[in-house]
Design a protein that fits this description.
512 residues, 18 strands, Alginate export domain-containing protein, signal
Length: 512
């Protein structure tokens, strides 16, 4: 019934378009895109993800002894290999890697009039030079260069299927009514990507009210559909309407010349049980931007609420699962986002950013996700970058991204300097903290019984970037980061090794 009503709505909106006489039937084709080649060098002696279990520690002494015995066996086996003249299989707990990749983005729009437009956007890459180092094609049919936007790059595998569709939608434009409707695969984004920044299939509607100086946008994104699964092979779908949908509504207002306000709400209705979790969550946000002659600032707050039902194993004293139950968790979390910019002159500005969420990062003492309790903040599908290593999604190392930014706080100072005409230099210093200290009672290595203590200090980072605008359509970008880890990061990763992560890369990009 809902689908029928939606179809009737689209017909009622779009029918007047086709009843009007077109001024021209010539097909208009517009395109844009970019070519990019990037060289990267990264190095670290710190883990990027946890390697030990997060289940409760039943017998610390026994687990410690098992770890000692396991390490001793690995060393003994390696010694025997060396005696036979074979190379060692034990590698240092550090890395220094250089690699190169290339990428192509291409977007096209087709239209025969002013009311309907079709958009297709595709991507090839990032294709690494020499491939991804996967094993060779085997008798089991495995082919490391078969599919995916990053496929290819290895000698003899340049014909891999590596085209990815980013956009594929129809844009219904009614300029007389200031109404725009997009149907298909498109980009869905919230204010600065703090709640949602992802492509997906769905419908978005934009309506401008110029006399009120505001605009409204709403829509629905079908995030996942599992309604067609037939696991028992009886010829019928196992579940009806087993899917995950995201609904949203946002209103932008510009009542004053130097003030912009946005109120929004995102709703997740997820009844897909295939991943052991269902949820009904909401994110309510207020984004306020103030611009003045010499300074500007942003005040942004998000409130997260709802319920999560998660399949939870019950474990006995021996660590054996004896039953699986579904537990209901009430979510009440929040995110704050503050940014300040002071413009010294046209060539120099100073910036401060503070971004954080409530709750505890990682897992609790029972081995469950910590953001399910204690005012934890659940993320939807955000996409944002604060610094080059600590919180990033643009390439190289990244300790966290928008989706894992729960129970964390990052503060930073950075300055942009425009010098010698086309050059822009950026210097930045950032600190990463946990809202509540990560749980240490589930650790095997960096643990209390080994003499360590938990903390909230995750580390600090230095950034240095250069942007050189060679021409209006060609630029060279250098980005670098140097992160020094703190004790809270070692608690979260359950690791006692290393201290530093570093990265640097140079990008050559041509836009058209």
């Amino acid at each position: 019934m809902k689908n029928l009503l939606f179809v009737l709505f689209l017909i009622s909106v779009c029918a007047p378009l086709f009843s009007q006489e077109e001024e021209s039937q010539k097909t208009s084709l517009n395109f844009s895109g970019s070519f990019r080649v990037r060289a990267t060098n990264v190095g670290r002696d710190v883990l990027l993800s946890r390697q030990t279990p997060v289940t409760p520690v039943i017998n610390p002494e026994q687990e410690y002894q098992n770890k000692v015995n396991s390490d001793a066996n690995l060393i003994a086996e390696d010694v025997e290999r060396r005696k036979l003249g074979q190379p060692s299989q034990l590698t240092p707990k550090k890395e220094d890697v250089s690699y190169y990749d290339t990428r192509f983005l291409y977007n096209m729009s087709f239209s025969t009039g002013k009311y309907v437009e079709g958009i297709w956007g595709m991507q090839v890459g990032d294709i690494p030079f020499g491939g991804k180092g996967l094993r060779s094609t085997g008798p089991d049919g495995f082919d490391p260069g078969l599919i995916g936007p990053g496929s290819g790059g290895e000698r003899g595998r340049t014909s891999a299927v590596n085209v990815q569709t980013n956009f594929l939608y129809i844009n219904f434009r009614i300029p007389e009514s200031a109404l725009f409707i997009k149907v298909g695969q498109q980009l869905f984004s919230s204010a600065q990507g703090r709640v949602l920044f992802s492509t997906g299939t769905g419908v978005s509607i934009l309506k401008n009210f110029q006399f009120l100086r505001l605009s409204w946008e709403g829509g629905v994104l079908r995030a996942k559909d599992q309604s067609f699964l037939d696991v028992d092979k009886n010829g019928f779908a196992d579940k009806n309407y087993q899917n995950s949908n995201i609904f949203y509504s946002k209103t932008k207002m510009e009542y004053f010349r130097n003030v912009r306000n946005e109120l929004y709400a995102y709703f997740l209705d997820d009844n897909d049980k295939t991943d052991g979790e269902t949820s009904r969550l909401a994110w309510y946000g207020s984004h306020n931007e103030f611009n003045y002659q010499s300074f500007s600032f942003v005040v942004h707050g998000i409130f997260n609420t709802g319920t999560v039902k998660k399949l939870t194993p019950l474990i006995d004293g021996a660590g054996t699962t004896y039953y699986n139950t579904t537990r209901r968790h009430s979510i009440k979390g929040a995110m704050y986002d503050f940014q300040f910019t002071y413009r010294w002159n046209e060539s120099l500005n100073f910036n401060f950013i503070a971004l954080g969420t409530t709750g505890r990062p990682g897992y609790d003492k029972d081995g469950q996700e910590a953001n399910l309790k204690g005012n934890g903040y659940r993320t939807l599908a955000p996409g944002f970058s604060i610094s080059n290593i600590a919180t990033d999604f643009t390439g190289g190392y990244a300790l966290f991204n928008g989706s894992s930014f729960s129970g964390l706080n990052e503060y930073g100072l950075y300055s942009n300097i425009i010098a010698f005409g086309p050059y822009q230099f950026t210097l930045g210093y950032y600190q990463l903290w946990a809202t509540r200290s990560p749980e240490i009672k589930i650790n095997r290595e960096f643990s209390e019984w080994a003499g360590y203590k938990t903390s909230t200090y995750m580390g600090m980072e230095y950034n240095f970037n250069i942007r050189y605008n060679v021409t209006s359509d060609f630029q060279i970008i250098f980005r670098s980061g140097y992160f020094v880890a703190g004790d809270a990061l070692f608690v979260l990763l359950d690791s006692k090794y290393g201290r530093v992560l570093r990265e640097a890369f140079v990008t050559f990009e041509h836009r058209f």
